[in-house]
Design goal:
Rossmann fold, disordered N terminus, alpha+beta, 8-stranded mixed beta sheet, 29 strands, 2 domains, Glutamine Phosphoribosylpyrophosphate, subunit 1, domain 1, binds iron/sulfur cluster, disordered C terminus, 528 residues, 7-stranded antiparallel beta sheet
């Protein structure tokens, strides 16, 4: 069992629990400015790993920079020099956490790193990853992206057996499972632990001399393997490889365990779980992943453009300009414009230099905040019929504010087109979503939503149109290897204690044989 949790593991521990942000407003996870003004979904985390490079920490630093969009509450890097760990974690952005002095202390040829938002687990320094543990076989560091759906059940069982938890993170549950294993070998212990958990995860484990990567049996979260010279690198997205000049080798397979050990240059691959139905998160393609990343050889920008083109086929409207809500909807807006021949224009501009605003929530300040973060370009939209493309509608409050921004700038008509189906069901796989009752599409018809957001017309991309636009190569398999539970209420895993949070017509498709038919409407599809 652990001697300590979050200790230095015998190495030079750089985590002093120090918070960079002023006051509890940010650190306690009350709200941050992005979510305060924009009711967008939040990705939970990004992971990065390096094995066999003398500058492991520096590579991790640049890798985390590229993954910053996946989590902005905390970041951390833990490296091993073969004898001991050196690590540093803190609250805030990567560029604010690490400086020359801190980086000079992170010496080692292998390392794992993490950026985080919190979904399960509170937003506190104690939950910042990589989590570092000291257990009977030595030091263990863990970084993960995703969410375990049976974490609560496992935690209760472990507590009954005497485990004491010091964080509210799922990751600690896995650490306890490893610590309780009868296996002395870390790979055997990790395999045994993973066979008890269920959900979405891309795990990186590190001991003094081993680095282990594991992807969940459905492959819900993106997880890729790359090489930089003789060094191996791991990341949540390929954009992190581009940032360090590494080559993308392949996506890590669902249910695959990869092991690297100091002194043994070969990469060992094994399967720790039987292959299950592939279920890559569709929202990664729609919204979360960076446009320059590829998931399973599908480029995100290209997929979003196809979503926009498909949306134009399904919901054409005669208009003067097409604009996208920056940044994630610009690719789809370009696709819509290409398909219709209506010019694409920068009708909305994001202010990138505003920084964080530490203001108290009130309706008036929310309205002001949207105007500070986003501007409508009057010369582009004034007197025009505008098609506004957005990637999703969550509560509807943001859409209303943006439509109003365009109207205040003189737009004659505002037609909203959404490059995904209505978001109606909560996610339990590492995406922070509100309760069903707060999801506007779960409560209102499309016409009622149109009225609520003050649009002249509103259309969502069809389910089948989305799958066709992403164009993954999983043949005729049900949902073509995608998780689309937030749109169709069909979840790829058991939901355990979360079952009461979904509507009664929920379907668990994990163990069913692949289906060929889809229950959505047919339409003309854009070629992938
Ligand atoms: S439920 Fe939605 S957001 Fe969650 S993993 Fe599935 S597709 Fe992604």
């Amino acid at each position: 069992m652990f001697d300590e949790v979050n200790g230095s593991g015998g190495g030079r521990g750089a985590d002093h629990g120090r918070a960079l942000w002023s006051g509890d407003y940010y650190n306690e996870g009350v709200v941050n400015d992005h979510d305060f003004f924009f009711d967008k979904l939040r990705e939970e985390c990004g992971v990065f790993g390096v094995f066999g490079h003398p500058e492991a920490a520096h590579l991790a630093y640049y890798g985390l920079h590229a993954l910053q969009h996946r989590g902005q509450e905390s970041a951390g890097i833990c490296v091993s020099d073969g004898r001991e760990f050196h690590y540093h974690r803190d609250m805030g952005l990567v560029k604010e956490i690490f400086n020359t002095e801190i980086m000079s202390g992170l010496q080692g040829a292998m390392g794992i790193a993490h950026v985080r938002y919190s979904t399960s687990g509170e937003s506190k320094i104690v939950n910042a990853q990589p989590l570092v543990f000291k257990y009977r076989e030595g030091d263990l560091a863990i970084a993960t992206n995703g969410n375990l759906v049976n974490a609560v059940e496992l935690r209760k069982r472990l507590e009954r057996q005497g485990s004491i938890f010091q964080t509210s993170s799922d990751t600690e549950v896995v650490a306890h499972l490893i610590a309780r294993s009868q296996h002395d070998d870390i790979v055997d212990a990790v395999r045994e632990a993973l066979q008890q958990v269920d959900g979405a995860y891309a795990f990186l484990f590190m001991t003094r001399d081993k680095l282990i990567a594991a992807n969940d049996p459905h492959g819900l979260r993106p997880f890729v393997l790359g090489k930089l010279g003789d060094a191996y690198v791991f990341a949540s997205e390929t954009c992190a490889f581009d940032a360090i000049g590494a080559q993308h080798v392949r996506d890590i397979e669902p249910g695959e365990l990869l092991v690297l050990e100091l002194g043994k240059p070969e990469l060992r691959s094994e399967r720790f779980a039987a292959e299950k139905r592939r279920a890559v998160c569709a929202m990664e393609y729609i919204y979360f992943a960076r446009p320059d990343s590829d998931i399973d050889s599908v480029n995100i920008h290209s997929a979003r453009k196809r979503m926009g083109r498909q949306l134009a086929i399904e919901a054409f409207i005669d208009a003067d300009v097409v604009t996208g809500v920056p940044d994630s909807s610009i690719s789809a807006a370009i696709g819509y414009a290409e398909q219709t021949g209506i010019p694409y224009e920068l009708g909305l501009i994001k202010n990138r230099y505003m920084g964080r605003t530490f203001i108290q929530p009130s309706q008036a300040l929310r309205e002001q905040g949207v105007k500070m973060k986003l501007s409508a370009v009057r010369k582009v939209v004034e007197g025009k019929r505008v098609v506004m493309i957005d990637d999703s509608i969550v509560r509807g409050t943001t859409s209303l504010r943006i439509v109003n921004l365009l109207r205040e700038a003189g737009a004659k008509e505002v037609h909203v087109r959404i490059s995904s189906p209505p978001f109606m069901n909560p996610c339990f796989y590492g995406i922070d979503t509100p309760d069903r009752k707060e999801l506007i599409a779960a409560q209102k018809s499309v016409e009622e939503i149109r009225q609520a957001i003050n649009a002249d017309s509103l259309h969502f991309l069809s389910h089948e149109g989305l799958l066709a636009a992403i164009g993954r190569g999983d043949g005729q398999e049900f949902n073509r290897g995608m998780c689309t539970a937030c749109f169709d209420n069909r979840y790829p895993t058991e939901l355990y204690g979360h079952r009461s949070l979904v509507s009664e017509d929920v379907e668990i498709i994990s163990d069913k044989s692949p289906k060929l038919e889809l229950r959505t409407e047919q339409s003309a599809f854009v070629k992938a």
